[in-house]
């Protein structure tokens, strides 16, 4: 999991799948088949590569019109980030519901049986079981499979949505607090309230190229309803970068420090810390650690200063500067008193992400 590997994957996408993306992206042909999407999410999630560079390169390669669908999908990621930043209660609410779900598993044998069968790929629904195993084995699922999986979890198996989101966060190598929490809420009908996503057997047969023939799906469920929608808060302002020497702190939400807007600050030392998602699988932890190691090596070469995982007093009394960590595991343990920078991409897009996606979508031509 390195920036170089992300750039290589992206170059292959531009040369191959990219041209067909709009027409083929909804097909999940299975883990052994040719990909229909970029598979860049593990790199974008950690900002080993950034949204602005992939959008600029896709537009340069295909022209805006032909790149539009891909660009719009990248902006979904930006949208969810901005939305969770302004609705952090969606994250804390999810964490509380997931913890409550785990307590229920300890005391309710029926629920535990369904949950265990679902996560071990023994639900009896062919596609769902294949995806559960694929997720655990590879750490990844196609977007359409994530939608179907979440829908079957919630509406057919009637499992708590937060336990499903928690299962994804533990297993996905691109596990992302914003995209994951808000996508699960969206499938359940809690994001765009009352509008839920229903997995249908015919749609699954079609977009998996006939690999599956699921039976027993509940195709006419009601959306979930939770009494209190998450409250909106103001986007916290970013800090200004000081002049002179600073210590730069890296975390898993932003691992391309060479492109941070550091102004006239001079980076004298770099420290990094790794905050995994709760219960992260060994696959996810290994990806997190490899990504951090790669960023530290690059930072040391680029800034010409020592870079390592942080130890006590690593910053030598200098002001600590860090990329603003959006809501999630890194932000929850970021030391007090850090100066938090925000990239221009987030600064411009996040204020447009407080409601539904369409406001941000309409602004895309201006933003890029
Ligand atoms: C229930 C559910 C849970 C999800 N959990 C996560 C998660 O934890 N982490 C994560 O990165 N994505 C998540 N997604 C969004 C999406 O499934 C993945 O980003 C996408 O499958 C990644 O594959 P790709 O890189 O080949 O995407 P491509 O289709 O090639 O798209 C390019 C990039 O755009 C962004 N993107 C594409 N589709 C979406 C989308 N629907 N929502 C947000 N961003 C998108 C991703 O950064 C992606 O890498 C989830 C979706 C659902 C329905």
From TrEMBL:
Keywords: FAD, Flavoprotein. Gene3D superfamilies: 1.25.40.80, DNA Cyclobutane Dipyrimidine Photolyase, subunit A, domain 3. It comes from the Bacteria. Residues 70-204 form the Cryptochrome/DNA photolyase FAD-binding domain. Its cofactor is FAD. PANTHER family: CRYPTOCHROME, CRYPTOCHROME CIRCADIAN CLOCK 5 ISOFORM X1. This is FAD-binding domain-containing protein.
């Amino acid at each position: 999991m390195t920036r170089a590997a992300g750039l290589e994957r992206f170059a292959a996408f531009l040369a191959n799948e990219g041209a067909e993306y709009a027409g083929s992206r909804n097909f999940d042909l299975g883990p052994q088949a040719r990909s229909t999407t970029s598979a860049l999410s593990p790199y974008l999630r950690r900002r080993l590569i950034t949204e602005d560079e992939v959008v600029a390169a896709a537009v340069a390669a295909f022209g805006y019109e032909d790149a539009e669908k891909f660009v719009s999908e990248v902006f979904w990621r930006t949208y969810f980030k901005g939305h969770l930043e302004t609705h952090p209660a969606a994250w804390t609410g999810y964490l509380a519901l997931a913890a409550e779900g785990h307590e229920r598993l300890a005391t309710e044998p029926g629920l535990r049986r369904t949950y265990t069968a679902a996560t071990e790929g023994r639900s009896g629904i062919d596609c769902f079981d294949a995806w559960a195993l694929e997720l655990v084995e590879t750490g990844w699922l196609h977007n359409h499979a994530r939608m179907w999986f979440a829908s079957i979890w919630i509406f057919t198996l009637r499992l708590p949505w937060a336990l499903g989101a928690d299962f994804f966060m533990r297993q996905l190598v691109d596990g992302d607090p914003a995209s994951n929490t808000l996508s699960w809420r969206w499938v359940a009908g809690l994001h765009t309230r009352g509008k839920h996503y229903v997995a249908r057997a015919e749609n699954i047969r079609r977009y998996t190229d006939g690999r599956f023939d699921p039976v027993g799906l509940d195709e006419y469920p009601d959306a979930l309803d939770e009494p209190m929608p998450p409250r909106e808060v103001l986007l916290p302002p970013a800090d200004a970068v000081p002049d002179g020497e600073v210590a730069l702190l890296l975390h898993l939400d932003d691992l391309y420090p060479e492109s941070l807007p550091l102004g006239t600050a001079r980076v004298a030392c770099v420290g990094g810390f790794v905050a995994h998602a709760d219960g992260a699988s060994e696959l996810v932890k290994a990806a997190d650690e490899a990504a951090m190691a790669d960023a530290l090596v690059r930072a040391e070469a680029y800034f010409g200063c020592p870079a390592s995982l942080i130890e006590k007093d690593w910053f030598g009394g200098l002001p600590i500067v860090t990329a603003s960590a959006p809501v999630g595991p890194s932000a929850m343990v970021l030391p007090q008193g850090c100066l938090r920078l925000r990239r221009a991409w987030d600064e411009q897009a996040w204020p447009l992400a407080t409601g539904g996606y369409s406001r941000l979508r309409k602004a895309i031509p201006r933003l890029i």
